[in-house]
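Lab notebook, bench 4. Still working through the backlog of constructs that have no structural model yet. Next entry is a single chain of 104 residues. Request: give me the structure tokens for it.
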Amino acid sequence: MSDPIEAAIFEKLAKADPKGVGGKSIEPSDVAKELQPEQWQRMLPKVKATALGLMRQGKLTITKKGKPVDPNDFKGVTRLRLPTPEETAAALAALPPKTDEDED
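Model written out:
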């Protein structure tokens, strides 16, 4: 994991949810504040974009009012948490199938 934003998200989640059961969540702004305390507002869109990519890969769940959001249509105040096995399976099923050309 070479992406510092991705690493910061999972470090924060490990502290909030040490058992990794997907129950506790964190705010994206907490991650942004940890990465750039002085200018965290500038970092927040990058944190959210990284979280969205992780959600599409089934590695993270973005929630609003405790419910998973549609990764293609959401806005407003959100939180991040580890996905349940069902959420991971659904995200992976939504990915386009790999072709032989993808293996280069």
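Notes after review: The chain has a mean pLDDT of 86. The beta strands are 25-26, 61-64, 67-68, 79-81. Flag for follow-up if needed.
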